Amino acid sequence: MAGALPLGDPAPADGTLPPTVLDGAGERPFSVYVHIPFCAVRCGYCDFNTYTAQELGHGSSQDTYAAAVCREIGFGAAVLEASGLPARRAGTVFFGGGTPTLLPAADLAAVLGAVRDAWGLEPGAEVTTEANPDSVTPESLRTLAEAGFTRVSFGMQSAVPHVLKVLDRTHRPERVGQAVSWAREAGLEVSVDLIYGTPGESLEDWRRSLEEALSYGPDHISAYALIIEEGTRLAARIRRGEVPDIDDDDHADKYLLAEELLTAAGFGWYEVSNWSRDEATRCRHNLAYWSGGDWWGAGPGAHSHVGGVRWWNVKHPAAYQQRVDSGASPAAGRETPDAEARYLEEAMLLTRIVEGLPAARLRPEGRRAIAGLIADGLVEPAAAFAGRVVLTLQGRLLADAVVRRLLDF
């Protein structure tokens, strides 16, 4: 299970937000995130807030979970209205986890219906669910599409059996293509998620995974470097010497290969770890996060952000269900980052996307650093002369270092 939540300040039981959230609210997009914390098996690398059936214990159940989330969504709509915020329809909805598609498709449809009833959906709203390839059927995907889902993001991770085994993934590699075909037949857009840098994965293994993913014809591909989180089973295996540790140079080689193959296949990067066929197939939900939009996060451990105020729900499904059943806010704590924290975060997030960070938003020392970053081949010269900090390919490999120089760390 995931590490501890932030401490923050106490969150009021009625969820009421301070008047400061009203400033500029009409210009900010609004999104909804729904956390489904259930997994059939806990993957060895994962430290997300997820639970297998054996870990749930008393006081929570997959059977009653959708109803609990629907109650929180109704509560959330009432909180935003009571706080004086203007009515805003959701432009994006994202079901993440966990494995959302472990719940019956009818349950996911009911939760989306609760979002529609509470806030409404913008015309052409993007509605995504994550899914494991072995957790869907043609019928379940058709049910989701009929309910208003527009997109499914499959956790492929790798096409190589020995890599999947190290990651504790349970699906067979050939199941991914089958699931993608079913999603296409249902009329859904498709994203495929990959992980590179798994202990024991060769460069040719990674090439095979990329080529296999591309062969399915997805609209979008995410490729994430494996991070070893403390407390996970994989971290323990590395510590015991059962599998080798990860290697930064190996990560760099695999990122460069991903860029080469994905670009050749007609994909373009729009965030350091994300590529799409065109602007229309970018993940608009994640872009809303990166650009500072508002969102309500429903479910245990889910985080929310409205007008600079952030809060996070209690972690365990049993504690969460108890809160929402009593009509109280499920929030465990909240915070309002100060101007310094907001400045740092904006620089970190906007530097990672293809549109880049407006140089005018940097402090003088940050603007002075741009010339050196151009000289080092980390920032695109033409974009910089036009007033934006946009990473080169080499800059993407060293994105954190670029941000540190811009922030004069």
What report would you give on this structure?
One of its GO terms (biological process) is porphyrin-containing compound biosynthetic process. Its main location: cytoplasm. This protein is α/β, with parallel strands linked by helices and 409 residues long. The chain folds into 2 domains: 19-290, TIM Barrel, CATH 3.20.20.70; 339-406, no CATH class. It has 16 helices and 14 strands. Helix 7 (203-215) links the parallel strand 5 (189-196) and strand 6. Helix 7 runs parallel beside helix 9 (248-264). It starts with 29 loop residues before the first strand and ends with a helix. The model has no long low-confidence stretch (mean pLDDT 93).
Oligomer: single chain
Number of helices: 16
| Contiguous runs where pLDDT drops below 50 for at least 5 residues | none
The portion of residues assigned to helices is 40-55%
Pfam family, one: Radical_SAM
Function: Probably acts as a heme chaperone, transferring heme to an unknown acceptor. Binds one molecule of heme per monomer, possibly covalently. Binds 1 [4Fe-4S] cluster. The cluster is coordinated with 3 cysteines and an exchangeable S-adenosyl-L-methionine.
Protein name: Heme chaperone HemW
Subcellular location: Cytoplasm
